[in-house]
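Record type: monomer structure entry
Structure origin: computed from sequence
Chain ID: A
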Amino acid sequence: MKALKPFALSLVAACAVLTSCGGPEEEVEMEALEPSPLPVTAGTAAVDTLFEVVNSTGRIVSARTQDLTAQIQGEVVQAPGYAGETVSDGEVLFRIASGESASRLSAAGSAYRNAEALYEFECENYRGDLTPEIQSMIRQTTGLADAQTSLASAQTQWGNSAISAGFDGVVSEVAVREGMRVYPGTLLGQVIDPWSLQVRVSLDERELAACVQGQRVYVTIPSLNDTTVIGSVGSVSPVVDPSIRAGEVVIELPAVEGLRAGATAKAEIVTSVTTDQLVIPEEAVLIRDDREMVFVVTDGHADWRYVTLGASGRGLVAVEEGVLEGEQVITSGHYSLAHDAPVAVMN
């Protein structure tokens, strides 16, 4: 065997040195290529009470509303200055001037007084027993009965010139102003009771069947920074509207400062309560391969788990299989996750 030339030996030695020096650098580069943990939020599987609910959105309304309408023709001579005025039961809010009703009342009063005088004269000069039957006959023959009816009608018409509040409340609408001419049936304004408020929601016939009076209702009010209050079902429509296959549910509310009629309300009507249920947040559940699954945080990685779910309500869902109590399930940042992906829980 021939001896290697000095140049060849030097080349082999150089390659060996380069090979031995490159190992640790390659390991550092490999470590640098490891993916960074993805930020996610997570919730904990826990045993809790599950409230099954019917969800709907409705409007806040007053339990008592009074439409104020004109009963006679004439000119408005009194009206509230603005909507929002507080009024008392029986307080006159609108007054309508009508010369015709005043004239009629005056004529009816005069006719009644004349008929009454004639009736008294006939009774004083009647010869015989003045029985109730005879008195009734004299009332008819003297015209007193008709005059009394005409006077009552004129007084009613005159009284209709003043429109009063039927309860303590607040003026919610003023539709006419002083000086305007109105006719019978013209809407003048509206009074509401701002201290007795309700939520009215429309439910389809299947949801309606699950509702009964007295059920607890969680009501969330967006206009009050998503404040949630607890109300109760006051009434359930006994009929279903055939045109829309739905019926109305009225929800009674407690007094809430700042709440106004007309505001939007989100209602969760509790139809069933089950205790000692293992539950997780509903937003943790995804559908993959037509199956329900969740990602469980295990040693800093996303563990893909298929789950068997039960009832749900108020943002929670019962888990029958696939997750254990105390495990963390990812609730956001998980739509594009893969199994065993590194994650960092940020909440």
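Annotation 1: The chain has four domains: 38-51+275-345, 54-63+193-272, 67-97+161-192, 99-159.
Annotation 2: The first strand starts at residue 38 and ends at 44.
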